[in-house]
Amino acid sequence: MTSSSSSSQVITEYGKQNIFGRETQPQLVEDYTSYPEEAEKTNGRWAMIGFFSLLVSYFTTGQIIPGIF
After folding, report:
1. What is the pLDDT of residues 5-41, one digit of tens each?
2. Are 43 and 37 a contacting pair, CB within 8 Å?
3. How large is the average pLDDT for residues 43-61?
4. d(CA 10, CA 16)
5. Single pTM value for the model
């Protein structure tokens, strides 16, 4: 690919304008020491909320997903 000199448009080898966005530079975050543990806790809490809401829905309406099952 070659770049046009008059603007920031990118022209492909076929003479067409590249319509895809530019790739952003990755950012390095130094403080990821407890990320896996926090991710597991968060995932478990959302799973508990989902299971609880499923039980409440079943006990109040008699259906697993009200209106569908």
Report:
1. 445 677 777 888 777 777 788 888 777 778 888 999 9
2. no
3. 93
4. 8
5. 0.49
